[in-house]
């Protein structure tokens, strides 16, 4: 079967864990002789990278951080100081194993057994490729790419990871969150019948802006403000809303066949917001006629919403990252309410399960396919809104639009640069659509 066109999940593992799709298969030991120590490398030393390192240390296994890499020296040194103060001798990263620059990841990966990939997502495909070719287990943050060539690369490398029995966990942490696991297991077991509609949301106030400094090249400015440039971020429908989109695909057990929608720059219109939109409203249409409505926005000062709801032939369900999950039957009677007390932190749980499998020399986790396809769903949603067109899943997969720069250097320019007024071109449906598909 052509994996680039396959839409159905392998459900055998989702009922158990929502994330693991493999039986426990022995793998070669990652440990040095006479020790149970697992050496990790952190690639990307921003806030998410720091958090991922904390989560790895909370896994309960004998973890040692031995290498770090980041494009920026200040990011790396700040994260190193934070981790060293908290974890002491568990952080063994002398200056000789603190790698700075675009190529630092290559050296850091060689030093470790497990690699944490937490850079801006535009770098994910090439970093994932390097880690797998070096034979390393991987935790990689979502999303796993920002364009369709990147998706193809990730899926191709996933096959190599499977052949090498390398565990791969993707940071779509709802897959490791107790309320989602319990509720979606019940849905898949038929508790509310066939799901025929849904709504998924990430409406919030947006994220940080880092003012331009006089000494910065264009490459450095965009790297510092990576959220506002598609070659680094993919827009917030991909970088952030992928969580909720992934829940829709998980609930349905398949992927959309077509996507259409609308979006714009309505409030965050200044040049400091780069090229991305601040709102998207998208319809995900599945092959059985189900339509899931997807909404995300970055508007300050108005109501926020981050959750998912679905309607089915025998009832409905409400889900949220706050550990809530409620199922009702067709008459509105509550048939399940998740107990929110004592639920493990899902960010820590994904690391706990990954490192437990590695410590036992088991091959259990291949999250790459659903991570890639849910990322792809967000990418197609972005393309649909940027172009104003209905985008078919299989047609989208033929896109060759590669957003990455032709070279990675501080004096090189990304493909999108500002005009004489410092303003970046943004998508205008029906006008400049050739740039996007």
TrEMBL record:
PROSITE patterns: TAT. Signal peptide: none annotated. Residues 38-162 form the Gfo/Idh/MocA-like oxidoreductase N-terminal domain. Residues 180-297 form the GFO/IDH/MocA-like oxidoreductase domain. One of its GO terms (molecular function) is nucleotide binding. Transmembrane segments: none annotated. This is Putative dehydrogenase. It comes from Sphingobacterium paludis.
């Amino acid at each position: 079967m052509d994996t680039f066109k396959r839409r159905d999940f392998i459900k055998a593992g989702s009922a158990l864990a929502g994330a693991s799709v493999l039986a426990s298969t022995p793998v070669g030991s990652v440990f040095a002789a006479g020790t149970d120590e697992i050496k990790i490398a952190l690639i990307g030393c921003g806030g998410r990278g720091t958090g991922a390192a904390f989560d790895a240390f909370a896994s309960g296994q004998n973890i040692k951080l031995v290498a770090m890499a980041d494009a920026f020296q200040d990011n790396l040194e700040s994260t190193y100081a934070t981790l060293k103060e908290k974890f002491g001798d568990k952080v063994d990263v002398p200056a000789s194993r603190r790698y700075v620059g675009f190529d630092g990841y290559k050296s850091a990966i060689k030093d470790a057994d497990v690699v944490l990939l937490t850079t801006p997502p535009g770098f994910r495909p090439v970093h994932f490729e390097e880690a797998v070719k070096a034979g390393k287990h991987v935790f990689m943050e979502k999303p796993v790419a920002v364009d369709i060539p990147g998706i193809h690369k990730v899926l191709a490398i996933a096959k190599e990871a499977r052949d090498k029995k390398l565990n791969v966990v993707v940071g779509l942490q709802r897959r490791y969150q107790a309320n989602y696991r319990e509720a979606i297991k019940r849905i898949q077991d038929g508790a509310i019948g066939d799901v025929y509609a849904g709504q998924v949301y990430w409406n919030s106030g947006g994220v940080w802006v880092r003012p331009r400094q006089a000494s910065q090249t264009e490459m450095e400015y965009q790297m510092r403000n990576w959220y506002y440039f598609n070659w680094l971020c993919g827009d917030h429908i991909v970088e952030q809303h992928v969580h909720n989109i992934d829940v829709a695909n998980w609930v349905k057990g398949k992927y959309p066949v077509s996507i259409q929608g609308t979006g714009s720059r309505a409030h965050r219109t200044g040049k400091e917001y780069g090229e991305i939109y601040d709102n998207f409203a998208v319809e995900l249409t599945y092959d059985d006629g189900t339509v899931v409505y997807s909404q995300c926005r970055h508007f300050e000062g108005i109501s926020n919403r981050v959750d998912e709801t679905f309607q089915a032939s025998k009832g409905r369900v409400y889900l949220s990252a706050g550990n809530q999950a409620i199922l009702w039957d067709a008459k509105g009677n509550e048939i399940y309410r998740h107990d929110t007390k004592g639920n493990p932190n899902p960010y820590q749980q994904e690391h706990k399960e990954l490192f437990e499998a590695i410590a036992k020399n088991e091959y259990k986790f291949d999250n790459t396919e659903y991570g890639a396809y849910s990322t792809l769903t967000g990418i197609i949603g972005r393309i649909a809104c940027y172009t104003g067109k209905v985008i078919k899943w299989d047609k989208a997969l033929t896109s060759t639009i590669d957003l990455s720069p032709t070279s990675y250097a501080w004096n090189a320019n990304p493909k999108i640069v500002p005009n004489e007024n410092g303003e970046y071109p943004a998508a205008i449906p029906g006008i400049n659509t050739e740039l996007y598909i």
